[in-house]
Amino acid sequence: MMHEEAAASNLAATRSRLSISVVAIAAVVAALYAVVTLLSAPIAFGVFQFRLSEAMMLLIALGVVNPHNALFKSSVQAVRPNRLGLAIAFGVTIGCFIANYLNPGNLGPIDYFGGTFATGVAAWLTYKLALNNKALNLYRSKQIKLSQIWQYLSFYVLPLPSVLLNGAIVGVYLPFLFTPADEMSLYVILSNVVIFSICEAVVVYVLGLLLLTLFLPQESKWWRV
Prior knowledge:
Layout: H1 2-39, H2 41-44, H3 75-101, H4 109-131, H5 134-140, H6 160-178, H7 186-215, H8 219-223
């Protein structure tokens, strides 16, 4: 009986420490996202937008493993990284809201919530894609080297949610905030969607994937949090 109580107590303590760590990681990620965005404000807001902090979206993949992968049969190993992946996703989303709210050229509620919604959905989809990403799972199971991960198409799917969601949502409402009403047209909206998507793609495909591969060798340290 005492043994069971001690085990239950240890489990509760472990869960408590894990919850605190997850919240802390989300807070740090949110702060970093907001700071990087505000420091690069001249290129982080507007139609031609290269928001460098969006590269952090790919870090979500650091905290995600496929629980069906033979390498991660332990429930503790499988659950911890996935919770961390969600923490990073949540941090990026909150960071986006903070950055848009503190934007020196404040664009109002539509940007606070529209941009945050786009980032949040993109973060969730990135998390889901990372769960069963072939390239990442092959690397984690030591079947391929880090340099070989670039050879797999699945690796290039990870940034897609950021490009598509931001282009389809932020790219649509930004013209209404920057373009005079008498100049608005379907062409203006569509061209803005394309331009915004290209800008986002440059950030997440170049900086984002590079950032991910930079941290991948240190990935196991994230799991121990």
